[in-house]
């Protein structure tokens, strides 16, 4: 397959701005996402984490600057997948939602049923396969969406607060899935508010404040020697304004 | 023919005239809704998913046409199909085909407008998710139509109800010819003016029953679909 030969990495943002009307969501961001351990995106509410992930996915075109995936600037989907902050379930069963993702990813029809089962089992939802997806709880929907994103066998997996509505056990479970995906070669780019989770998962940390890249450092450096005053107070659980 | 019988006896005895009139009405209206759906569903989806200059005006126009006066539609189709009209050569005036065309024009804006609204709302909700899954334009249309199938069927039922109940267009373009283009509504109009009330009332009862059945079906479908796919 032609597509397999192309890679989306490195993902490079070159002076990327994103604005809607008078609001600036991202302000002249420079960032390189390279293969390796998960990149965690941190920042207070409204800092621009979701906006950054949407630009990285190609869902939003920057209003200035350029984004490139493996040197290509067309937003046409390569092997990227994204778990949205508020996932949308199609008006179908849980299994049909995952099967839909598989079909879009080019999985041949005769293998879809088995793959669907595999993926649902992986996110711990096999028992809910036949249920209408929109009737599931928020946490369950988030895990269906994770299964649907994994169906793409992504090279870059963008996750927007994937555990925000999960209970502690489900959170650990999803973190294991994410680590597994990471170890099998997927590049994880993930927004999170849970500092414990960031410590558990992060290779490097991207810290945003008001649409600006405030800090990009290895996880160790970010927590032990934050370079900016904003990061220091954020780590200590204080309000960053 | 039906002198001395009352409306209920007419219906119960399965009066041949009555049955043929009901059958013709249903056939014409079903055909009209089918034609309107074949044109209206893609047209509505297209209006929902594309942006072009003049789109807003077109949306307003289609919405406005939902309330087209049936007699005006009838008159327009009459002029088009009449011997001296642009489509006069086909000789369709005063045939069931002309009635299907006229009713389809009446129903088309209803189906197109409701489809546009439904698909546009759903697209707003699905856009990021479908884009993130790499769904191209044909796949989008298919997914949106399928996931809004219950709303769209409701729209078609609404169109059916409007077409089945109207009298103006079919009277004008069909000519109310006995045994050929006489429908429930035109028969009611004619027989009432002639004073044959039992047949008019019998047909009226059937028509009301039909409309109620359609609305019950729409309601049932809604309830059922909410349980199935919510
Ligand atoms: N479509 C839009 N139009 C205008 N402003 C927007 C739009 N989308 C987001 N914003 C604004 O841009 C800023 C960044 O939003 P974004 O969703 O990226 O923040 P976030 O870091 O993901 O926040 P959270 O932690 O709450 O998820 C916010 O102030 C938000 O109000
Ligand atoms: Mg967000």
UniProtKB/TrEMBL annotation, chain A:
UniProt KW keywords: ATP-binding, Nucleotide-binding, Transport
Keyword Membrane: no
Name of the protein in question: Tungstate transport system ATP-binding protein
GO MF: ATP binding; ATP hydrolysis activity
Domain ABC transporter: 11-235
Family affiliation: Belongs to the ABC transporter superfamily.
Domain of life assignment: Bacteria
Entries under Pfam families matching the protein: ABC_tran (PF00005)
From TrEMBL, chain B:
The UniProt record lists the keyword Transit peptide: no
Location in or out of the cell: Cell membrane
Major subcellular location class: membrane
GO CC, alphabetical: plasma membrane
Keyword Transmembrane part of the UniProt annotation: yes
Keywords: Membrane, Transmembrane, Transmembrane helix
Biological process according to GO: transmembrane transport
Domain named ABC transmembrane type-1: residues: 22-218
Transmembrane segments: 28-50, 57-81, 87-114, 150-177, 197-221
InterPro entries xref list: ABC_perm_TupB-like (IPR049783), MetI-like (IPR000515), MetI-like_sf (IPR035906)
CDD domains in UniProt: TM_PBP2 (cd06261)
UniProt protein name: Tungstate transport system permease protein
